[in-house]
Amino acid sequence: MSAIYSLQQISLSYPQQRQRTQVLQDISLELAPGELVGIIGPNGAGKSSLLSLLSGCPAPDSGKLLFAGKSLASIPLRQLARQLAFLPQHNPPLTGLSCYQVAALGLLPHKSWFEPDNDYDRQQVLLALSQTGLLEKQQQPVESLSGGEWQRLTLARALVQQASVLLLDEPTNHLDVKHQHQLLQLLLQLKKTVICAIHDLDLAARYCHKLLLLDQGKVRAFGRPEQVLQPALLSEVFELPVAVSQHPQYGWWQVQFISPQVAL
Amino acid sequence: MSRWTRYYPLALTALALVLLVSVVISLLLGSVSFPLSTLAAALQFNGTEPLAETIIWQLRLPRVLTALLVGAGLAVSGAVLQNASRNPLADPYLFGLMAGAALGATIVSIVLPEQQLSMALGAFVGAMLAIVLVLAVAMRQQRQRIEITLLAGVAVSFMLSAISSFILYFAEPFAANRVIFWLMGSLSRSSWQSLMLIGPPVVLLLLLALALRRQLDALLLSDSSARSLGIRPERLRLVLLIATALVSAVIVSQCGGIAFVGLLVPHMVRYLFGVTAVPLLLGSALLGAVFMLWVDNLSRTLLAQQEIPLGVITSVLGSLFFLLLLRRRV
C-alpha cells in the first residue's frame, strides 16, 4: 500500500521577535492509509505544528511533503478539503449557528456557488450527527454545547466533508472518560486515516495503530505502541521515571509516570 | 437563535409585502398627494394624468427606487462585513469612506469651483482615495486584516477630515454650508441616472454574497476551520472588503452620508432571523430597503417646503432603535 503522507527531511520554523524559532526539525516518515496514528510528546514538542503542517498551512521551510503521492502545496485548497479535514482545538465560538448548520458546513467543498442542499445532503448531515450522538441537539445553538459536545460536532462536520484523512488536535481533551473511549472507538470504526495529537498515553496505546513520539521538534520514535513506549525513552522525553506494563487480562500497554515522592 | 429563525421564509415574504406596500405609499406621499387611482393611471402611462405621470415617473419613482437600493446596499454591505470579520462594529464606512467623500466634495466645490465638476464625482474619487489608502496598509498584513483595516480606516478618516476642515475653515460660508448639507445625506438628487449607477453594484454585491453564503457561514467559526473547508479566509475577506467598499463609495457619492443603516439593520435582522447568511442577507436587503424608504418619506414630508437631511433621521431613529434592542437583550 502506498503511503498517504510522505515526509522527507521536513523542517518548520516560526518568526518570533526577529528570530526564527525552530519547531520541527528534519522529520522523515511515511504514514499508511487507514491507520489511526497518535502523536505524543510533552508540551512544545511540535505536535500541533506537525498537524498544521500536514493540513497544508503553513508550508514547511524545507523538505518534501507529499500527500497521496502529490506535493501537498500543489493541491488546490478546495480539492484538498474533499480529502482532508483538520479539526483544530478551539472552544465553541459565539456564532448563533445551530449544530445542524455547523455540521452542514462540511458540504461546502462539494458545492458550487448557487447549488442548494438536496435531500441526500441533509441525510448525510443527519447521519453524521447521529454517529456523533448529537442528533437530539441538532437545533440547539453551538454556544450551548459543552467542550466535549463541540469536539464531537467538529468531527460530525468532518464526516459530512467526506474526507478520508482526519487530523485532530487533542480530540479527547475536554471529554469525560466515557466520551474519550466513545470518540476513539468511533474514530477506529470509521476506517479512515486518522492522525491525532493526544496527551493520554494509555488511550494512545489502547487505540492507536501507531504512535509518533515527538520531542523538541524531532521524531524520537515511530512505530507500534509497544515499540514506542519504551520506559527509558519515555522517561528521557517526559523527564519523569516511567513504568510500562501490560494489562494482565487484556494485554493493553499502560504507562505510569512515577512522580517524586511528596510527603502528605 | 431567535424564535423566528425557523420561520424565516415566511418572515421574509412578509417583509417583501411590507416593502411593496411601502413603495406604493411612498409614491403617493409628497407635497402633491394622489389617490391610488391616479397612481394606477399614471403608472400605465396612458396620458390621462399628465401632471401625475411627470411627478411619478420623473421624480418619485426614481427616488423611491434609489432609496430602496441605497438601504439594501448599505445593509447588505454591513451584514457581509460584520460576518466576514466576526466584528459586530464593522460597517460600510469603516474605510474612512465618508471622510474621503467629504474631502472630494470639498475640493470640487471650494478649491476648484470654476471647473464645474459634480460633487458626486469629487466624492467618488475622494472615497476611492480613502479605500486605496486603507487597503494599501491592510493588504500588506497577512493576519488580523480586518482589525488593521478598521484602525487604518479611523486614521485615514482623521487625516482626510483634517484636510477638509482646513479647507472649509478658510472657505466662504455659503460654499462651506453647501458641502456640509451635502454630507448630511439626501435622496433629493435622485434620478434615473443615479439609479443606474447605484443599482448594478448593489445587485451584484447581493448576488456575490449569496453565492458565497456557505463561505460566510464558515468564517463565523474560525479561520482554521474555514481553511479546513477549502477557503482562504484572507483572500475571501479581501474580495468582500473591496466589493463592499465599491458599493459604499457609489452610494456615498450619489447620496452623501447616511449613517447607521449599515451598522444597525444587520443587527436587527440577526436578532430576528439568526446569523446564517441567506436569511441575514435577504433580510438585511429587505429591511434596509423598507427602513430607508420610510426614512426618506419622513425626510420629505415631516416639514412643509423643506427636507430634513437623511443622515439626521437615520442617526436619531437608528440609535433609539438600537438602544431599545440592547436593553431588551440584557
UniProtKB/TrEMBL annotation, chain A:
Gene3D superfamilies associated with the record: P-loop containing nucleotide triphosphate hydrolases (3.40.50.300)
Single GO term (MF): ATP hydrolysis activity
CDD domains the record matches: ABC_Iron-Siderophores_B12_Hemin
SMART domains from the UniProt entry: AAA (SM00382)
Pfam families: ABC_tran
SUPFAM superfamilies for the chain: P-loop containing nucleoside triphosphate hydrolases (SSF52540)
Keywords in alphabetical order: ATP-binding, Nucleotide-binding, Transport
Source organism superkingdom: Bacteria
Alphabetical list of InterPro entries matching this protein: AAA+_ATPase, ABC_transporter-like_ATP-bd, ABC_transporter-like_CS, P-loop_NTPase
Residue ranges of domain ABC transporter in the record: 7-241
Family statement drawn from the similarity comment of this UniProt entry: Belongs to the ABC transporter superfamily.
Protein name, UniProt field: ABC transporter-like protein
Species of the source: Alishewanella jeotgali KCTC 22429
UniProtKB/TrEMBL annotation, chain B:
One function term, GO molecular function aspect: transmembrane transporter activity
Pfam family, one: FecCD
InterPro entries registered for this protein in UniProt: ABC_BtuC-like, ABC_transptr_permease_BtuC
Gene Ontology BP, a term: siderophore-iron import into cell
Keywords: Cell membrane, Membrane, Transmembrane, Transmembrane helix, Transport
UniProt keyword annotation of Transmembrane helix present: yes
Compartments reported by the entry: Cell membrane
Presence of keyword Transmembrane helix: yes
A Gene Ontology cellular-component term: plasma membrane
UniProt superkingdom: Bacteria
Membrane topology, from the record: Multi-pass membrane protein
Transmembrane segments: 64-81, 93-112, 118-138, 150-171, 191-212, 238-265, 271-295, 307-326
Record family assignment: Belongs to the binding-protein-dependent transport system permease family. FecCD subfamily.
PANTHER family: FERRIC ENTEROBACTIN TRANSPORT SYSTEM PERMEASE PROTEIN, PERMEASE OF ABC TRANSPORTER-RELATED
Protein name: Vitamin B12 transport system permease BtuC
